[in-house]
Amino acid sequence: MEKEMEKTAEQAVNEIETEVILQYREYEVNMDDVTNRVKAHYLAKGYKEESLENMQIYVKPEDFTAYYVINDSVVGKVNLF
């Protein structure tokens, strides 16, 4: 019974909704929005969504830019704010 309760508590922790907000000076942006902009930018370049295998996003608030690398070869950038 105790093991079952531990698993349930563990699952609850894994299922919580998380929102990450970047604040820089007087600006703020939801990081999910940045991720969606990166995906949209990738798709606008003519790539198909199913080709997306991995994505790294490098946030540089002092440049107001998020740089990205998708599938270890496609690079680009989007505005943060």
Break the fold down into its secondary structure elements and pairings:
Layout: H1 2-14, E1 21-24, E2 27-30, H2 31-44, E3 55-60, E4 65-70, E5 74-79
Antiparallel strand pairs: 1-2, 3-4, 4-5
**The biggest beta sheet, please?**
3 strands, antiparallel
How large a portion of the residues is in β-strands, by DSSP E? 25-35%
Average of pLDDT? 91
Provide the helix percentage: 25-40%
Give the strand order, joined by hyphens, for the main sheet. Answer: 3-4-5
- Count of individual helical segments: 2
What is the end-to-end distance?
A: 49 Å
| SSE succession | HEEHEEE
Form type: flat
Rg, Cα atoms, Å: 17 Å
Structural class: alpha+beta
The structural domain count equals 1
Q: Residue ranges: pLDDT <50 for 5 or more in a row?
A: none
What is the number of E strands?
A: 5
Name some characteristics of this structure.
81 residues; alpha+beta; 3-stranded antiparallel β-sheet; two-stranded antiparallel sheet; 33% helix; 32% strand
Verbal overview:
- By secondary structure, the protein is α+β, with helices and mostly antiparallel strands.
- It has one domain.
- Helix content is 33%, strand content 32%.
- It is built from 2 helices and 5 strands.
- The strands form 2 sheets. The protein has a 3-stranded antiparallel sheet, covered by helices on one side. A two-stranded antiparallel ribbon has the order 1-2.
- A hairpin with a 4-residue loop joins strand 3 and strand 4.
- The radius of gyration is 17 Å and the shape is flat.
